[in-house]
Design goal:
This protein has helices at residues 2-34, 51-57, 66-96, 103-111, 118-133, 144-172, 176-184, 189-200, 202-217, 221-226, 238-248, 253-284, and strands spanning 37-41, 44-47, 58-59, 62-63. It is mainly α. Strand 3 (58-59) and strand 4 (62-63) form a beta hairpin. The chain contains 12 helices and 4 strands.
C-alpha cells in the first residue's frame, strides 16, 4: 500500500500544482514582467526596461521622495506595532493563565475586535478620534503624527486579542514540572519568566512576531479608511502608496507594478531574516 502511494503520489499532486500555477505562480511571474512594461491592460503592454523603476524615485528629472517617505513611515509603524502588540498581548495572556476569575470572559472581550473588519473598525475609531480631537480644533489627519498614532492604536487594539490567544496556547504548553522545579530551586517570578518561560515560549514568539511584522508592512484597509494618506500623502503607508500610484495616476500602472515588486522583495527579505533570527534563538535555548 505504501509503495502504491509513493508511486501514484505525483498523480494526486497534479490538480493541486495546476491550481497553484494558475492561481499564484503564473500571475506572480507575469506581474514581475509587467513591472518592466508600460501597460494599460495585461494584454496591452510595451516593454520599457528599467524605466518604471527609475520613475519610483525620479519624475521629470527631479527626485520624488513619496515612495521613500512611505517606506520609512511603514518601517516605523511596523516596529512600533510589533513591540506594542506583542508586549501587551503577552502581558494579558500571562495574567489570564494565572487562574483569575472571569478568565473566559476576558479572553472573549479581548478577542472580539479581531472579528470586526478593518474598514468598519477604522470608521468607528475615526469618529471617536475626531470627536475627541475636535475639542483641540484638530482632526486625525491634522498632522502625520496624529494619523500615525491613530493607526497604531486601531491596529494594536484589533490584533492584541488574536496574539493573546496564541500566547495563551504557548503558555499552557510550558511543562508544569519545569515550573515546579524552578520554584523548588528558588527562582523568583522575574527570573522564572526570563530564564524558564520566555525561552520555552520562543516558537510562539516567533509566530506572533512574524504575524505582526507582516501585518504591519502590508496594512492597507485601516490606512485607506482612517487617513487616506492625508495630510498631503504624509500618512501613506507602502500598500496605500502603491494603490494610489496604480489607480490614481493615468499611465503609471507600470510604476505601481514596479513598486509592488519592490514591496514584495522587502517584505520577503525581512520575513526570512526575522524567521532565521528567531529560529536560531530557539536552537540556542
Amino acid at each position: 500500500m505504501e509503495k502504491a502511494m509513493k508511486k501514484y503520489f505525483p498523480i494526486f499532486m497534479i490538480p493541486t500544482m495546476i491550481a497553484f500555477a494558475i492561481g499564484f505562480l503564473i500571475p506572480f511571474v507575469y506581474g514581475i514582467f509587467l513591472s518592466f512594461c508600460d501597460f494599460t491592460t495585461v494584454v496591452d503592454f510595451k516593454f520599457t526596461g528599467l524605466e518604471n523603476y527609475k520613475k519610483i524615485l525620479y519624475v521629470g528629472g527631479k527626485l520624488d521622495t513619496s515612495f521613500l517617505h512611505s517606506l520609512w513611515y511603514t518601517v516605523l509603524f511596523t516596529v512600533v506595532t510589533v513591540l506594542i502588540i506583542n508586549v501587551v498581548s503577552f502581558a494579558i495572556a500571562f495574567a489570564l493563565t494565572k487562574g483569575i476569575r472571569g478568565t473566559n470572559l476576558f479572553r472573549t472581550a479581548f478577542f472580539l475586535p479581531n472579528l470586526i473588519g478593518g474598514i468598519v473598525l477604522s470608521y468607528i475609531w475615526l469618529m471617536i478620534f475626531n470627536a475627541v480631537l475636535q475639542g483641540y480644533h484638530k482632526t486625525i489627519v491634522s498632522t502625520p503624527w496624529t494619523a500615525f498614532w491613530g493607526l497604531v492604536i486601531v491596529v494594536s487594539w484589533q490584533q492584541i486579542g488574536y496574539m493573546m490567544i496564541i500566547y495563551i496556547a504557548g503558555l499552557q504548553n510550558v511543562p508544569t514540572d519545569v515550573i515546579e522545579a524552578a520554584k523548588i530551586d528558588g527562582a523568583s517570578g522575574w527570573k522564572m519568566l526570563k530564564s524558564v518561560i520566555l525561552p520555552m515560549l520562543m516558537p510562539t514568539i516567533t509566530i506572533c512576531t512574524f504575524l505582526t511584522l507582516t501585518n504591519g508592512f502590508k496594512l492597507f484597509d485601516q490606512n485607506l479608511a482612517m487617513t487616506g494618506g492625508n495630510p498631503a500623502h504624509q500618512s501613506e503607508l507602502l500598500a496605500l502608496n502603491i494603490y494610489n500610484t496604480f489607480y490614481g495616476k493615468t499611465g503609471w500602472e507600470g510604476v505601481g507594478q514596479a513598486k509592488a515588486v519592490i514591496f514584495f522583495i522587502i517584505v520577503a527579505v525581512i520575513s526570512v531574516l526575522q524567521n532565521k533570527l528567531t529560529t536560531r534563538k530557539e536552537v540556542e535555548q
